Amino acid sequence: MRRILKKIKQGQNINDEEYLQLMNYIEQLGGDSFASYTVFHKQYAAILFKTYAIYLPPFPVGLDELYEYLTQNHEAIEKLSDLPASITSFPPALHPFLNHCLNYDYALLQQLQKSLPDSLPKPLSLPRPRSREVIFKYEEANPYKEIGLKNHFERLARYTFVSRLQTYRYLTRSKAVEDRIEVIGGDQLGGIFTNKQKSIYYYIFLTESDFEKANQACYLLNLAFYGK
């Protein structure tokens, strides 16, 4: 691992095997020691995102998982206003993230308290949770062909209403001004992912066909990934 971390610090490319070793190491850190994960995040998160388009969240279980939990447990939204007293009603894995917000980023919790009851749907207004594993379709069946895309797809796959993720085409003229997700149809969203080299258009297939639910899913993903 030292050799891989040295290459990362120097901004060198890493191969498929090194990428797998790195992601397994990060996952192990998140599961074994939150303190060690925090140190690693401070040292490498910025360069991983800038050089490799790999998003490393500040917490191994954080904002993505909180959004997903609230959409599936709508009654928990009201308990946000009762934190920290209500923290035991949330999954233990979310406690470090919630405590951090209470101490250092309370504005985020305030934003959730104001926006979620009015803007997020009840669980039945999102596409139903999938019953099978997510299907990933990459160009040339190579998840490592485009730096950072596999990490981005894996983050999207955390949301239970996603059934399949598939690359579609490159934006050939220039990179996108900003990444975003949009509704294509009742069971399909389209997204743009940009790394330091190019922008890639991809499809997000949903677990059922319902235009209103697709709109709600699109809103949730844009809020969680891009803050809008």
Structural class based on helices, strands and sheet pairing: alpha+beta
Beta-strand percentage range: 5-15%
Overall average pLDDT: 84
Q: List how many beta strands DSSP finds.
A: 5
| Global outline | globular
Q: What quaternary form is this?
A: single chain
Strand order of the largest sheet: 1-2-5-4-3
Write a brief structural summary.
The protein has 228 residues and is of the alpha+beta class. The protein has 9 helices and 5 strands; from the N terminus they run H-H-H-H-H-H-H-E-H-E-E-E-E-H.
Explain what this protein looks like in three dimensions.
The chain is α+β, with helices and mostly antiparallel strands and 228 residues long. The chain has helices at residues 2-9, 16-32, 34-52, 63-72, 76-79, 95-104, 106-119, 149-156, 211-226, and strands at residues 135-137, 162-170, 181-185, 188-194, 199-206. Strand 3 (181-185) and strand 4 (188-194) form a beta hairpin. Helix 2 (16-32) packs antiparallel against helix 3 (34-52) and helix 6 (95-104) packs across helix 7.
